[in-house]
Amino acid sequence: MRVGTPSTGDFGQQLRNLRVRAGYSQEALSQAAGVSVRALADMERGRTRGPQRLTVQALAEALTLDDAEAAGLEKSAAAGRPRPRGTTNSTGSGNLALPRDIRDFTARGPALARLLELAQHDDPDPAAVTVVAGQPGLGKTAFAVHAAHRLAPHFPDGQFALDLHGMDPEPATPRDALARLLGAVGVADAAIPADADDRAGLWRSLARERRMLLLLDNAGGESQVAPLLPGAGPSLTIVTSRHALAGLESVHRTDLALLRREEAVELLTRIIGPDRVRAEAQAARDLADLCGHLPLAVRIAGQRLLSRPHERLGKLVARLAAESRRLDGLQAGNLQVRAAFALSYRQLAPDSRTLLRRAALAAGGDFSPETAALLAGLTYDEAVACAEELTDAGLLQSDPDAERYRFHDLLRLYAAEQVESEDGPEVRDGVLDRTADWMLRRATAAALHFDVDHERTAPQSDPDPGRAPAGRDRARAWLEAERAQWLAALRRAHDAGRHRQVLDTAQAMHWFSDLNQHWEQWVEVFRRSADAARRLGSRQEEAVHLNYLAWAHNLCVHDPRAALTAADGALAAAGECADGLQQGWALGYGAGALHRLGRTEEAEERLREAARCLAPQESPQARLAELTILNSLGTLLRQSGRAAEALDIHRRSERICHAGVPGRTDEVIALYHAVARQQIGNDLAALERWHEAEAPLRQALAAFDAAQMPAWSGQARLDLGQVLGATGHPEARQTLLAARDTLAAMRSPRQTEATEALTALDALHAPDEAHSGGGAGAGAGAGTATTS
Questions:
Q1: Is the entire prediction scored with pTM above 0.85?
Q2: Between these two residues, 474 and 517, which has the higher pLDDT value?
Q3: Which ranges in 307-454 belong to alpha helices (H)?
Q4: Tens of pLDDT along 676-687?
Q5: Are residues 171 and 219 in contact, defined by beta-carbon separation less than 8 angstroms?
Q6: What is the distance between the terminal CA atoms of the chain, rounded to a whole angstrom?
Q7: Of 7, 98, 220, 374, whose CB is crowded by the most CB atoms within 10 A?
Q8: Residues 126-142: pLDDT tens digits?
Q9: Is 528:440 a contact under the CB 8 Å cutoff?
C-alpha cells in the first residue's frame, strides 16, 4: 500500500484523499472514470455512502490503484450499502440486479448519447424518465439493458431492473412492484406499508435522496408504471414498453428505428464473425433486407447461422426469399419472430385484431383508414380508432404527414397468416371483392372530375357521396394516394370477369391519365380495358381502348413497337365499325410510333391521312383530335428540317383554339392552346428566331404548371431552357436544371437531352451548339393534348 493512502474509514473521505493524491479535480476524475461530477460530489460529501461495485471499479481504474487499494475502497463502499434481509418474499436487491449485457450489441449510438445527457442532468425536479417504446422486435430491452450497464458508473446508489410482465395474462401490480423496489433499497419487510399509495409515497421519499438507475422493463400501461416513478431527485428511470405510454407526463422519449442496412450487416458480423460475412458479402446484405432490418430478425438469423458453422449465408437467403417460408425460417431455439408478433396480437381488442390482419390484404406499401375500414367491415371512425391503437401498440407505423399507415414487412406476413387461419379463403375473397367494387366506384367518380363530359355528375356515382373527394384537387389527391388500391381492384374485377366495370373505370380515367402520363400503370389499365371490350364483343369500345393503350405505350413506357401494334389493332377495329374518330386517332398514334422508330415518311403519310379523316367531322371530339394530329404533324416536319412548314401547321392549330370548340370548356381549349404555343416556340427556335421563341414557351410552361402536369411542364421547361441558353439569358442554367430533375423523375427519354444541354452551357459552347433543336422528344403523341 502506498504511503499516506487511507485503508479504512468513511468512503467519501477515502475517495477524496485518493483523488487529491492523484492530482485530479472532480471534473478530471469524472471524465477518466465515466462517473458524473454530481455523483462524485455526492460520494465525497457522504450523501452516497455505498456506491455499487461497478462504480467503485471504474474509480479504482481511473485512479490507477493497486489491488490492495482497490480492495480497501470496495470494502469501504460495501460498508455503506443496504444489507440484504434474510427473507423469503423475493424482495431482496439481488433479484433486481441488471440482466447480463449483450456483448455483440450494435448501433444505437445517438440514442445512447441522449441517455448519457439525461444521466448527467442537473435538475432533480422531476427525476429523469425516458420511455423506450416501439414495435415488437426492435430490441428495446436489449437497448435498455446495454444502456444501463454503460450508465452504471453515473448511479453509485444502485442499478435495479424490474420486469413488469406487461404482456403477460397477469402483469405485475404496482403494489407488488413497489414492495420489490423498497426491498431493493433496504426497507425491511415489516416496514413496507400495506397500502399501494403509502408504498408509492415511501418509495418516492427514499428515491429523492439516491442517485439510482431504474430499469422498468416490459411495461403494460401508464397505470402500472406511474406509481413506480421517482418524483424528484437525481435518479434515472428507463421504461420499455410495446405501447407508447402517451399518458405519462414529463418524460423523455427514446425512439428506436429499424437498423440501417449497414448496421444490420454489422450485427450479423458480430454474431457469426467477419470471415463468413466477407466471404458472402452480398448474401449478408440480402439477408439483412429479408429480415427487414429488424434487430430481432437479424439476431435470429445470426444465431441460426452461428449454430450451423458450415452453412452458407446464401442458403438461408434462398429459404427466406419465399414469403410463405420466411417466418418459419426466422426462428432459432426459443427465439421466434412470429412469437414476438403473436404476443402483441393476443393483447388486442377484437376489432383491432380484425383490422390488423385484414389490412394485410391492402395493396401497396401503405393504406388509409378508409381502405382499412372496408377490409375490416368497420365504419371509418372505428377504423381510425383501431389504427391509432395499433400505432400506439407499435404494430403499425403512421405516416408523418398524411392519415396513412404501413406495416413492417415481416409483420404484414404475420397478419396475412392470421387472415388465412382466422378468416379463411371464403371470407377473405368476399372482403376483397367488396373492397374492390367500392374502390372502383370511388376511382371512377374521382376520375370523372377530369372528364369534360361528366365532371358535374362525378359525385353522384361515388359509393359514399358524403365523404367523396370534392373538386379536382381532392379527387386528384385521392387517385394518386390510392393508386395501388384501385389498380389492384381493377385487376381483381378483370380477373373475375366484371368487364363492364373495368371498361367504365378505364373510360373515366382517360382524361385524368393525360395529366399523369409518367405513370407506367396506364399500360396495364388500358390493356385490361381493351381486353374487357374484346370479351364483351364491342369492337367500337375495343378500338377506343386500343387507342388508349397505344398512347400509353408511346408516352408512358416509351415502347413504340408495342404502340404500333396497338394502334394497328385499333385501326382495324375502328374500320369494322366505321368509327371515323377512332380511325383518326389510330392513324395518329401509329404515326407517333413510326416516327419514334425512325420511319419518318410513313409517319408523315399517316398523320396527313389522319388529318384528312378528321377534318370533315363536326363533333367536338373530332376537333380536339384534329388539333392533336396537326401539332404532331408540325413537330415531325420541324424535326425533319422543315421548320417553316411546321410553323404554318402550328399557327393553324392556334387559330382553331382561338375559334373555340363548341361543347368544350375554356380550360380544355387553353390546354390545347398551350401545346400549340409550345410547338410554335420550338419552331421559332429551330429557325433561330430565339427572342421570338421565348414568349410562347413561357406561356406554355405557365399553363402546364398551373394544370399540375409535370410530364408536360418538364419538356416545356427544357425547351425554354435551351432557348434561354441560346440567348445568354441568366435564367438558362436554373431552368435547365429544373427541367433535368423533372424529366428524370418522370423517366422521360428527354432527360438525356437536358443533361447534354447543361453540359454544353457549362462548357460555354456557342449558342447554336448548346441548342439541340427544341422539342426533339416530341413525337406524334408527346407534347400534344392526347386526351381521347
A1: no
A2: 474
A3: 313-321, 323-329, 337-345, 350-359, 369-376, 380-392, 409-418, 424-447
A4: 999 999 999 999
A5: no
A6: 97
A7: 374
A8: 999 999 998 999 999 99
A9: no
